[in-house]
Amino acid sequence: MTTLRPFTCDDMFRFNFVNLDPLTETYGLTFYLQYMAHWPEYFQLTEAPGGEIMGYIMGKAEGHGANWHGHVTALSVAPDYRRLGLAAKLMSGLEEISEKKQAYFVDLFVRVSNTVAINMYKNLGYIIYRTVLEYYSGSPDEDAYDMRKSLSRDVDKLSVVPLTHPVRPEDIE
């Protein structure tokens, strides 16, 4: 049976293989530790019965007023465990935490070329809110979609009215 549990410091030495996907952003140790210290409830993993890390989600709560929201910083599932519904389970957990924090919506950024992820997020109820030009560094830089899903506090669904023009990373609130 798969276990959903909080990410711990010990897991820092066991999750590298989950990040081997070229579409997964890998961060420095201090970045992960910052998330564990500030938003531990948003940093969860799924574990196989044998103790292998199957996938993880890392996020946070941010913003002010009607822009108060949950944010998915990273979501990754190891190749051997894909197409089992683990990403949906992790996303659902982050959405529940955001609901408890009375967030208006959950957002995330995804590469425009990552059609598998985009379609998964759409199936989970996310919409493409806006395009962020040259969000991902590379050769060449790649645009991102800012995808959003409104939560129950956003009764009028104002947080998911798509913008008609792209923005630059420095224009993101």
From TrEMBL:
Subunit organization: Component of the N-terminal acetyltransferase B (NatB) complex which is composed of NAA20 and NAA25.
UniProt KW keywords: Acyltransferase, Cytoplasm, Nucleus, Transferase
Compartments where found: Cytoplasm; Nucleus
Family, similarity comment: Belongs to the acetyltransferase family. ARD1 subfamily.
UniProt keyword ATP-binding present: no
Molecular-function GO terms, alphabetical: protein N-terminal-methionine acetyltransferase activity
Function: Catalytic subunit of the NatB complex which catalyzes acetylation of the N-terminal methionine residues of peptides beginning with Met-Asp, Met-Glu, Met-Asn and Met-Gln. Proteins with cell cycle functions are overrepresented in the pool of NatB substrates. Required for maintaining the structure and function of actomyosin fibers and for proper cellular migration.
Annotated N-acetyltransferase domain residues: 2-152
InterPro entries: Acyl_CoA_acyltransferase, GNAT_dom, NatB_acetyltransferase_subunit
Top-level EC class: transferase
Reactions catalysed: N-terminal L-methionyl-L-aspartyl-[protein] + acetyl-CoA = N-terminal N(alpha)-acetyl-L-methionyl-L-aspartyl-[protein] + CoA + H(+); N-terminal L-methionyl-L-asparaginyl-[protein] + acetyl-CoA = N-terminal N(alpha)-acetyl-L-methionyl-L-asparaginyl-[protein] + CoA + H(+); N-terminal L-methionyl-L-glutaminyl-[protein] + acetyl-CoA = N-terminal N(alpha)-acetyl-L-methionyl-L-glutaminyl-[protein] + CoA + H(+); N-terminal L-methionyl-L-glutamyl-[protein] + acetyl-CoA = N-terminal N(alpha)-acetyl-L-methionyl-L-glutamyl-[protein] + CoA + H(+)
Protein name: N-alpha-acetyltransferase 20
GO cellular component: NatB complex; nucleus
Its EC number(s): 2.3.1.254
Gene: EOG090X0ENV
Lineage of the species this protein comes from: Eukaryota, Metazoa, Ecdysozoa, Arthropoda, Crustacea
